[in-house]
Amino acid sequence: MPALNGSCLCNTVRYQIDGLDMPISHCHCHTCRKAHAAAFATTAGVLREHFRWLAGQEALGTFESSPGKLRYFCTRCGSHLMAERPAQPHVILRVATLDDDPQLTPAAHIWTEHAVPWLSDEALPRWRQWQGD
Questions:
Q1: What Å distances lie between residue 26 and 69, 110, 114, CA to CA?
Q2: Could you tell me if 15 and 51 are in contact, meaning their C-beta atoms sit under 8 angstroms apart?
Q3: What pTM did the predictor assign?
Q4: Is residue 40 within 8 Å of 106, Cβ to Cβ?
Q5: 51-55 and 41-47 strand pairing
Q6: How distant, in Å, are the alpha carbons of 38, 114, 115, 121, 122 from that of 118?
């Protein structure tokens, strides 16, 4: 499989991975929900040797969201790109920031004890585009 590219919303920070080394999961933990302003964050582990920054490292900011866990984000647009615990052999990629299709689907929901009560797995209407006024 060819390398996969990813970027932040403003395209200042760009990275490349050789592939996802761990399954894709939807993380419902409190810190992921707050960091992403979403009901969950879709993540996957990537071995450090399979991850590289391509551009925009000067625009990266970090935040230690829990002891020893650093979250990396673009200081220009705010996109959260990845997180790490420096002692671990992998980084935790924010899969939604990939520009290329990883050709994998999520394998699990994790930290569901933190899940918001208003999130439902029921079938909801789906529209290809916004259906507002």
A1: 18, 6, 12
A2: yes
A3: 0.88
A4: no
A5: unpaired
A6: 12, 12, 9, 10, 11
Q: Which two tokens stand for residue 30?
A: 């409190």
- State how far the alpha carbon of 113 is from the alpha carbons of 29, 49, 58, 63, 90, in Å: 8, 32, 36, 24, 24
Number of H helices, E strands in the chain: 1, 10
Tens digit of each residue's pLDDT (9 = 90 or more) over 45-88 = 999 999 999 999 999 999 999 899 999 999 999 999 999 999 99
pLDDT at 105: 93
Domains annotated for the chain, with CATH where assigned, are 4-114 (2.170.150.70)
Residue 114's φ and ψ, nearest 5 degrees, are: -100, 0
